[in-house]
């Protein structure tokens, strides 16, 4: 859904890197046009928008205007009224009960704007008051702190200072240092973190949770289920029928008709409410998992990962690019720290934070720089907590397939409504003209003789039949089937360790977290996957295995005795200061704990073995300025006041290009000009062995050139020329076990795997060969393998052509990844992209399916993605493809099944029977076919892609064959049944009821047998694996048992009679013919051109005429 607020509980959405109109398969020459121009008007079900769809696109299926457009095309516009269509065909309260509630979304957005506006007004008033305080100083400007239990400051004073951004109060409390003393926090090591302390802090200052509105109860779902207009009409008809029946036939038998309709309606309501309630619980579980994000805090001197819910006031939290601010807080230290506050202020601008503006608001994002914060407010005591508490509600989600199916359901519903009106007119005409007869042959209506009460009773019965036809003909089950399939697939993927939707305690056992339900559905259509290398295709377990210091190769690489003391000293200083990692040495002499990114951990581990004393070096010098690692320049730097050294670390060939000298093995400085080729060859050799090459360099700097004031220091650009090369290290990150097989599965499934990495092109090539992405060295030629800078230099048209040929892209920037995704999508590909960095957010958002990394991914990347790969494993991506295809295939199975039933159901004229058929079709049928697990057969198909018709020619063949057979048999039984079944000599009334019972029974059994056919639309063996699907077998068994009960024991209610064993055999035989008929039908060839193209031609001819 499109919203300025994240769907993730405590986190706001990042500023969208592009417009919310995410249009699929848009031709290159149409990219400047409005999204509405993309829809093919000749195809009412062609939706170009499939991700982050605007509300207008979603609303069009809910209003009468589009329905009128369908009516015009279907030539029924002269017959039907708009309100009737909107109420009966669209039937929004039922059909859209699982989708996005647009009215509620509008109300939420208004409330969100109101809260934001209120926050802005309060902030403006406080700034005005603060300005007055600066002009007229009258006594203390801050309320003296009030002790709260063990702490020297109270909750209200702390929350007020943070919420009001009151600098004068902060100064009164002694700044960050004074405030930390009041909160008993060590700014260097954080709180101790023992359980008793955490309990005290939660009791004093609250928890980092906000009140959530309770989900709707089961009774509420029952109340909503019966408010369906068609069901209300049937309930009214049942009451009228009950009253008139008792009046005309007496209490003993007169209540049968009304009671049978009431029971059928009651059953539909119960099943609908149970299904809706279970679905609501699914959404609640999904939302809870979204809110439970993991972040790093400093406790007891060590960096540890905890849940956002476990943050307490007094915690010290390190911040880096892409992180979210987990609570209100105060900046302790920071370098180039920039915060995106758009989620709270509504203004799309970046706010720089320093000691002059130290207040940080919960829910905002770190746009740039690094820093540490002291938590001062949590949960409901923050603006973000107030905002989320006021709008937190479970909502549905409009998936692309639901949008397409809503269009299909509307179109079919109009046809069904037209049939129902026709039936109503014909039956009323026949009745009042005396052409309708009772089972005994007597005329039902004789002018002047039939009393008014009996005539009204018969009219109500006719009206009930017409309304029931609408109930059956309008296929609300189509959009419902999407949600049922997704929900069931999610539960099954849990067992396959492929999806995280349950409570936090289970999240460690999952591989994937789905942030957008429709992502599973879209993933089934993916034609290409653009994957990162590090951690996705590799294990992300990095170790330094080669090292060059000067021209000397150190073997083993961590032997300090082979290095000069000057080289060791400079290396350790640079590594200790120029890092976002941490080294914790336990006082009890336990194992050293190293935290940080895998690359940082590998280099820190290497340095520790060389003799690095992390805490000592960090305390001996002060960091003057930091240039955080930049994925464009692929290096990061830091300036220290220890003789003012500027240390750089990053991609080897890029750092090497800035070096003019190197430190040799004797600790002497040498010119690098003559030895540059040696270092380049060394880098290439390491890269060819799949090693990530990182260079470490430094340069001395004159202290008098360092800016002295804070503002100038913040704007200081660290010099990156005339560097002295200290070392080049080769870091090994082995391929994941099984990744080669996973790539092979994708290739067999027609999904092309592309590697997009920031690593050296030679490293990328070596890993691609090892993973099977490149088959042989001969494939490693341009444009199969290409550097990012080469690709971005092409024109837009050239990129579209080149993109399809690219298999490996090395030294790519996030913008290169974005350009590749755009080029592939313009070429018609359905693109899945993996990413972990903040700068990957545009590509993740642009892709049809964004896959972020759970371990290395930043919160900005995760929020821009649709699925979070919790274990960063490529094999998990393949699982989603497999299950996504299963979702799509199951929907197609249900469509084939339901459309077959739709045609045959119009022949039945028994109200209770029709409602029972509707129950089979809409809920039980959807659930039975939604429970089919994925098979290997799915992964040997080509992907459906972007424009594959939902109803394929194979499906048309199957459903038309079955529908024609069923209609033919039922019509023959209807008009010749008395003679065929040897009932001509029986009592006519009894014989007619037996015939109708046979028709009803045979029809239901046809659907039972056809459910097996729907399992395998394109395979002869429809029974393969059926016994493994217990839910399918259970539903089929339940249907059969209930059908037997309806026929044998509830005849008075369903207007049926008991059948003997011969008649049951005839019904079973009629149904079982569906199996051999389906097998024969599958031998018939179908044309490659989709039938939908032929169906569109009349509409295309009609459109110019209408426009003229």
Automatic annotation (TrEMBL):
<keyword id="KW-0472">Membrane</keyword>
<dbReference type="InterPro" id="IPR044492">
    <property type="entry name" value="P_typ_ATPase_HD_dom"/>
</dbReference>
<dbReference type="InterPro" id="IPR004014">
    <property type="entry name" value="ATPase_P-typ_cation-transptr_N"/>
</dbReference>
<keyword id="KW-0547">Nucleotide-binding</keyword>
<dbReference type="InterPro" id="IPR008250">
    <property type="entry name" value="ATPase_P-typ_transduc_dom_A_sf"/>
</dbReference>
<comment type="function">
    <text>Catalyzes the hydrolysis of ATP coupled with the transport of calcium.</text>
</comment>
<keyword id="KW-0406">Ion transport</keyword>
<protein>
    <recommendedName>
        <fullName>Calcium-transporting ATPase</fullName>
        <ecNumber>7.2.2.10</ecNumber>
    </recommendedName>
</protein>
<feature type="transmembrane region" description="Helical">
    <location>
        <begin position="899"/>
        <end position="921"/>
    </location>
</feature>
<keyword id="KW-1278">Translocase</keyword>
<dbReference type="GO" id="GO:0005524">
    <property type="term" value="F:ATP binding"/>
</dbReference>
<feature type="transmembrane region" description="Helical">
    <location>
        <begin position="70"/>
        <end position="93"/>
    </location>
</feature>
<dbReference type="InterPro" id="IPR059000">
    <property type="entry name" value="ATPase_P-type_domA"/>
</dbReference>
<feature type="transmembrane region" description="Helical">
    <location>
        <begin position="462"/>
        <end position="488"/>
    </location>
</feature>
<dbReference type="Pfam" id="PF00690">
    <property type="entry name" value="Cation_ATPase_N"/>
</dbReference>
<dbReference type="Pfam" id="PF13246">
    <property type="entry name" value="Cation_ATPase"/>
</dbReference>
<dbReference type="InterPro" id="IPR001757">
    <property type="entry name" value="P_typ_ATPase"/>
</dbReference>
<dbReference type="InterPro" id="IPR018303">
    <property type="entry name" value="ATPase_P-typ_P_site"/>
</dbReference>
<feature type="transmembrane region" description="Helical">
    <location>
        <begin position="1063"/>
        <end position="1084"/>
    </location>
</feature>
<keyword id="KW-0479">Metal-binding</keyword>
<feature type="transmembrane region" description="Helical">
    <location>
        <begin position="963"/>
        <end position="983"/>
    </location>
</feature>
<dbReference type="GO" id="GO:0005886">
    <property type="term" value="C:plasma membrane"/>
</dbReference>
<feature type="domain" description="Cation-transporting P-type ATPase N-terminal">
    <location>
        <begin position="175"/>
        <end position="246"/>
    </location>
</feature>
<keyword id="KW-0812">Transmembrane</keyword>
<keyword id="KW-0109">Calcium transport</keyword>
<dbReference type="GO" id="GO:0005516">
    <property type="term" value="F:calmodulin binding"/>
</dbReference>
<dbReference type="GO" id="GO:0005388">
    <property type="term" value="F:P-type calcium transporter activity"/>
</dbReference>
<dbReference type="GO" id="GO:0046872">
    <property type="term" value="F:metal ion binding"/>
</dbReference>
<dbReference type="InterPro" id="IPR023299">
    <property type="entry name" value="ATPase_P-typ_cyto_dom_N"/>
</dbReference>
<dbReference type="InterPro" id="IPR006408">
    <property type="entry name" value="P-type_ATPase_IIB"/>
</dbReference>
<keyword id="KW-0813">Transport</keyword>
<feature type="transmembrane region" description="Helical">
    <location>
        <begin position="408"/>
        <end position="432"/>
    </location>
</feature>
<feature type="transmembrane region" description="Helical">
    <location>
        <begin position="221"/>
        <end position="246"/>
    </location>
</feature>
<comment type="similarity">
    <text>Belongs to the cation transport ATPase (P-type) (TC 3.A.3) family. Type IIB subfamily.</text>
</comment>
<dbReference type="InterPro" id="IPR036412">
    <property type="entry name" value="HAD-like_sf"/>
</dbReference>
<keyword id="KW-0106">Calcium</keyword>
<keyword id="KW-1133">Transmembrane helix</keyword>
<keyword id="KW-0067">ATP-binding</keyword>
<keyword id="KW-0112">Calmodulin-binding</keyword>
<dbReference type="Pfam" id="PF00122">
    <property type="entry name" value="E1-E2_ATPase"/>
</dbReference>
<dbReference type="Pfam" id="PF00689">
    <property type="entry name" value="Cation_ATPase_C"/>
</dbReference>
<dbReference type="InterPro" id="IPR023298">
    <property type="entry name" value="ATPase_P-typ_TM_dom_sf"/>
</dbReference>
């Amino acid at each position: 859904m499109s919203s300025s607020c994240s769907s993730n509980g405590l986190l706001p959405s990042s500023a969208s890197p592009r417009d919310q109109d995410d249009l699929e398969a848009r031709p290159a020459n149409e990219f400047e046009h409005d999204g509405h121009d993309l829809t093919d008007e000749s195809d009412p079900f062609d939706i170009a928008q499939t991700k982050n769809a605007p509300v207008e696109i979603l609303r069009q299926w809910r209003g009468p205007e589009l329905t009128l457009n369908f009516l015009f095309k279907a030539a029924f516009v002269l017959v039907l009224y708009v309100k009737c269509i909107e109420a009966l065909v669209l039937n929004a309260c039922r059909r859209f009960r699982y989708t996005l509630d647009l009215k509620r979304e509008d109300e939420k957005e208004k409330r969100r704007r109101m809260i934001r506006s209120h926050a802005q007004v309060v902030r403006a008033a406080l700034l005005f008051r603060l300005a007055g305080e600066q002009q007229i100083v009258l006594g203390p400007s801050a309320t003296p702190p009030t002790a709260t239990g063990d702490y020297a400051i109270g909750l209200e004073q702390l929350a007020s200072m943070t919420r009001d951004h009151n600098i004068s109060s902060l100064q009164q409390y002694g700044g960050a240092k004074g405030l930390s003393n009041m909160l008993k926090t060590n700014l260097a090591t954080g709180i101790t973190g023992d359980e008793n302390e955490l309990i005290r802090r939660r009791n004093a200052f609250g928890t980092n949770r906000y009140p959530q509105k309770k989900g709707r109860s089961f009774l509420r779902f029952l109340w909503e289920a019966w408010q369906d207009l068609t069901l209300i009409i049937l309930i009214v008809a049942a009451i009228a029928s009950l009253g008139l029946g008792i009046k005309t036939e007496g209490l003993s038998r007169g209540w049968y008709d009304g009671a049978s309709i009431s029971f059928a309606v009651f059953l539909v309501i119960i099943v609908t409410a149970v299904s809706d309630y279970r679905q609501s619980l699914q959404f609640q579980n999904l939302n809870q998992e979204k809110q439970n994000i993991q972040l790093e805090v400093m406790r007891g001197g060590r960096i540890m990962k905890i849940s956002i819910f476990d943050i307490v006031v007094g915690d010290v939290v390190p911040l880096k690019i892409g992180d979210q601010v987990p609570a209100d807080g105060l900046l302790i230290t920071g370098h180039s720290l920039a915060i995106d506050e758009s989620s709270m202020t509504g203004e799309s601008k970046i706010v720089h934070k320093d000691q002059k503006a130290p207040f940080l608001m919960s829910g905002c994002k770190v746009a740039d720089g690094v820093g540490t914060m002291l938590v001062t407010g949590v949960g409901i005591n923050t603006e973000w907590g107030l905002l989320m508490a006021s709008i937190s509600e479970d909502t549905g989600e409009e998936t692309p397939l639901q949008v397409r199916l809503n269009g299909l359901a509307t179109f079919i519903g109009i046809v069904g409504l037209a049939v129902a009106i026709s039936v109503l007119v014909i039956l009323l005409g026949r009745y009042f003209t005396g052409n309708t007869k009772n089972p005994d042959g007597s005329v039902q209506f004789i002018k002047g003789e039939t009393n008014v009460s009996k005539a009204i009773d018969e009219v109500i019965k006719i009206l009930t039949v017409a309304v029931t036809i609408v109930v059956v003909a309008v296929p609300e089950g189509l959009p419902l089937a999407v949600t049922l399939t997704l929900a069931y697939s999610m539960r099954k993927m849990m067992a396959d360790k492929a999806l995280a939707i349950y409570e936090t305690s289970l999240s460690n056992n999952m591989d994937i977290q789905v942030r957008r339900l429709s992502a599973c559905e879209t993933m089934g259509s993916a034609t290409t996957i653009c994957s990162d290398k590090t951690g996705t295709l590799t294990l992300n377990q990095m170790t330094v295995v080669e090292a060059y210091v000067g021209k000397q190769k150190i073997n083993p690489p961590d032997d300090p005795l082979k290095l000069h003391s000057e080289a060791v000293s400079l290396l350790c200083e640079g590594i200790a200061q120029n890092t976002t990692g941490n080294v914790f040495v336990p006082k009890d002499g336990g194992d050293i704990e190293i935290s940080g990114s895998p690359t940082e951990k590998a280099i820190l581990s290497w340095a520790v073995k060389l003799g690095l004393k992390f805490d000592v070096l960090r305390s001996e010098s002060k960091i003057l300025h930091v240039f955080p690692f930049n994925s464009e320049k692929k290096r990061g730097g830091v300036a220290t006041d220890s003789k003012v050294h500027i240390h750089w670390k990053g991609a080897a060939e890029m750092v090497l290009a800035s070096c003019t000298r190197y430190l040799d093995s004797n600790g002497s400085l040498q010119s690098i000009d003559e030895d540059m080729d040696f270092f380049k060859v060394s880098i290439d050799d390491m890269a060819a062995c799949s090693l990530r090459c990182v260079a470490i360099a430094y340069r001395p700097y004159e202290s008098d050139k360092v800016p002295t004031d804070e503002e100038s220091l913040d704007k200081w650009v660290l010099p990156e020329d005339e560097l002295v090369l200290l070392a080049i290290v080769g870091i090994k990150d082995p391929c994941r076990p099984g990744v080669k097989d996973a790539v092979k599965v994708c290739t067999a499934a027609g999904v092309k795997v592309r590697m997009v990495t920031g690593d050296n092109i030679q490293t990328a090539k070596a890993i691609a060969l090892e993973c099977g992405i490149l088959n042989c060295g001969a494939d490693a030629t341009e444009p199969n393998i290409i550097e990012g800078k080469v690709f971005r230099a092409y024109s837009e048209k050239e990129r579209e052509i080149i993109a399809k040929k690219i298999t490996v892209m090395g030294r790519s920037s996030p913008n290169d990844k974005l350009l590749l995704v755009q080029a592939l999508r313009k070429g018609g590909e359905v693109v899945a992209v993996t990413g972990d960095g903040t700068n990957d957010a545009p590509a993740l958002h642009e892709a049809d399916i964004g896959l972020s990394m759970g371990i290395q991914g930043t919160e900005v990347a995760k929020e821009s993605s649709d699925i979070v790969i919790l274990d960063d494993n490529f094999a998990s991506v393949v699982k989603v493809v497999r299950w996504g295809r299963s979702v799509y295939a199951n929907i197609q199975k249900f469509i084939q099944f339901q459309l077959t039933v739709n045609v045959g159901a119009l022949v039945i004229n028994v109200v209770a029977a029709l409602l029972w058929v509707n129950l089979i079709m809409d809920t039980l049928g959807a659930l039975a076919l939604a429970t089919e697990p994925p098979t290997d057969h799915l992964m040997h198909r080509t992907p459906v892609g972007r424009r594959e018709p939902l109803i394929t020619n194979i499906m048309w063949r199957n459903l038309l064959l079955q529908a024609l057979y069923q209609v033919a048999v039922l019509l023959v039984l209807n008009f010749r049944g008395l003679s065929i079944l040897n009932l001509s000599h029986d009592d006519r009334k009894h014989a007619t009821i037996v015939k109708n019972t046979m028709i009803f029974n045979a029809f239901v059994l046809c659907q039972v047998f056809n459910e097996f056919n729907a399992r395998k639309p394109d395979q002869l063996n429809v029974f393969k694996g059926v016994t493994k699907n217990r839910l399918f077998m259970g539903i089929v068994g339940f249907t059969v048992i209930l059908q037997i009960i309806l026929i044998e024991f509830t005849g008075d209610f369903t207007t049926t009679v008991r059948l003997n064993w011969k008649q049951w055999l005839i019904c079973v035989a009629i149904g079982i013919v569906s199996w051999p008929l389906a097998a024969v039908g599958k031998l018939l060839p179908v044309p490659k051109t989709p039938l939908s193209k032929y169906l569109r031609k009349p509409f295309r001819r009609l459109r110019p005429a209408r426009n003229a």
